[in-house]
Amino acid sequence: MGTGRVAVLLFLTTALLQALLAPPAEGLVRIPLKKRPADGNGGLHDARRRGFLGSSNNDVAAAALNKAEAEEEGDIVALKNYLNAQYYGEIGIGTPQQRFTVIFDTGSSNLWVPSSKCYLSMACYFHERYKASQSNSYKKNGKPASIRYGTGAISGYFSLDSVKIGDVVVSNQDFIEATREPGITFMVAKFDGILGLGFKEISVGAAVPVWYNMVKQGLVDDPVFSFWFNRHAGEGQGGEIVFGGIDPNHYNGNHTYVPVTRKGYWQFDMGDVLIGGKSTGFCASGCAAIADSGTSLLTGPTAIITQINEKIGAAGVVSQECKAVVSQYGQRVIDQLLAETQPSKICSSVGLCTFDGAHGVSSAGIRSVVDDEAGESNGLFNEAMCNACETAVVWIQNQLAQNQTQDLVLQYINQLCERLPSPMGQSSVDCNRVASMPDIAFTIGGRKFTLKPEQYILKEGEGPAAQCISGFTAMDIPPPRGPLWILGDIFMGAYHTVFDYGNLKVGFAEAA
Questions:
Q1: I want to staple 477 with a disulfide (CB 3.0 to 4.6 A). Which of 161, 243, 253, 482 is the partner?
Q2: Which stretches make up the Peptidase A1 domain (predicted)?
Q3: According to the model, what pLDDT value does residue 373 have?
Q4: What pairs with residue 154 in β-bridges?
């Protein structure tokens, strides 16, 4: 999440509807210790059961135990899991503490909670509200602040107070008291607010993020935090975030690390995307991606998400613009690709986009007297046609690379048009087909990270009443920031994720 982001907190529609009828969530379980207890709840006894102490080689066993003890150093906060769509934990603000549940969000950088002075938004009345008058450590700031997310917005003003996370207390922390939370998203959310763990570069109001102050105030031994999400909603602990370390009980093997390429979000370079082991070619030359604990699903460019959803049989939305482009311009696109015309110039050459020197740009963004007189609808139509053309070029290029005949290429592109997902929406799938769906893999740091169907399909209910939703949703972020993939909870649930602030890198290992 964060200012400027197009999408955030892609809550499942079913989760939101059920939240309206569901009973209040159980009280949060928080582990306010810097080291796991030596009991059967995931501590050293668990290490023995997992084989750390089961080796006949005492030296190896001792080294493994030392590793477990060393890595478990850190401030551990347990998370609750609601329908695999929302992971949230508890913090305290003020003296004495006022308790709030928050999303620990690596896609934004501000902390905000509802204010007692939030009178006009219904969402505030469904959640805990901060009362400045009841805190002995409160300090007034008053500077106005607002944050817009893909699923809603909040506004209010900054205040200053102490913030307790796990077993540590961050002093003099700037945060936003939200006085407005319009829309249904925040009203039905299981959490009260959001604690951003992104970089200060995207912090609203230039506020110093909580994590920065944890490091600056010496509250963690190592400038690292890590996430584990339990993808079995309702079974055991919902998840865990460790500030200052890594819990070895929640991953297998070694982490693959990649450097942060752009501070703001935790952004890194990603390589090819594979469907059923076959290259899509879309990111073969590289794409940008972010690891985002505040996004429920996995988002990517429409062109590749549509191919994925077509392969898994996800029902999308028919795009007339897409079909029109294929019908009128498909053969011209094929001819130009075969003539080795630069792909980024093709849509401008057929008159659907304007080439800016690096890529196609919708002519809707170039206002004219004609546009003003014709109204905004003409501009929106141009933009849709340009986007459809850019998407078709990617698909056609990929099919030609597989030596498909031109007729088959155009037939296949028409099929893909029918699978175009709703922007920011979900696509349903047949629950009975999950077992036959292909694996989807992402290349990161030269390693393939595979998602199996049961990992990327979200299932709600059992039997005939079960509903299944594709974990992939489309979002097009234009250059120079994009194309940008958002690897949300779908991905982070399968792969334990380490955010190494000290060395500016992100690490992934198979979740245990």
A1: 482
A2: 87-509
A3: 32
A4: 147
Report d(CA 306, CA 280) in Å as an integer.
Answer: 11
For the chain, the first-to-last Cα distance in angstroms comes to 27
Give the model's pLDDT for residue 122.
Answer: 87
DSSP conformation class of 265 = T
**In the block, which residue shows the tokens 């668990």?**
46
Residue type, 3: T
**Residue 417 exposure: Cα atoms within 13 Å on the Cβ side:** 25
Q: What is the distance between the alpha carbons of residues 498 and 241, in angstroms, rounded to a whole number?
A: 10
Choosing from 75, 105, 192, 247, which is the catalytic residue? 105
Residue with tokens 């200052």: 244
Closest to 91 measured CA to CA, from 136, 140, 37, 30? 30
Alpha helices in 118-190 (DSSP H): 122-125, 184-188
The residue assigned the tokens 């070895």 is 248
Question: To the nearest whole number, what is the mean pLDDT of the chain?
Answer: 77
* Residue 231, SS3 per DSSP: coil
Q: Which two tokens stand for residue 500?
A: 């190494």
Is 418:322 a contact under the CB 8 Å cutoff?
A: no
Q: Rounded to 5 degrees, what are φ and ψ at 188?
A: -95, 0
**CA–CA separation, 357 vs 352, rounded Å?**
15
Taking Cα atoms as reference points, which of 455, 84, 465, 420 lies closest to residue 238? 84
Which tokens go with 383?
């933009």
Query: What integer is the mean pLDDT of 11-38?
Result: 30
Residue-wise pLDDT for 477-499, tens only, equals 877 777 799 999 999 999 999 99
Instruction: Tell me which residue of 248, 237, 228, 229 sits closest to 72, measured CA to CA.
Output: 248
Per-residue pLDDT at 495? 97
Give the whole-number percent of the chain exceeding pLDDT 90.
41
In this structure, are residues 309 and 421 in contact, taking their beta carbons and an 8 Å threshold? yes
Considering the entire predicted model, what is its pTM?
A: 0.69
Tell me if residue 292 is catalytic: yes
Q: Which of 292, 476, 489, 500 is catalytic?
A: 292
Among 83, 458, 32, which Cα is nearest to 235's? 83
Residues 6 or more apart whose Cβ sits within 8 Å of residue 419 = 306, 309, 310, 314, 315, 316, 427
Q: At 330, give phi and psi (nearest 5°).
A: -55, -45
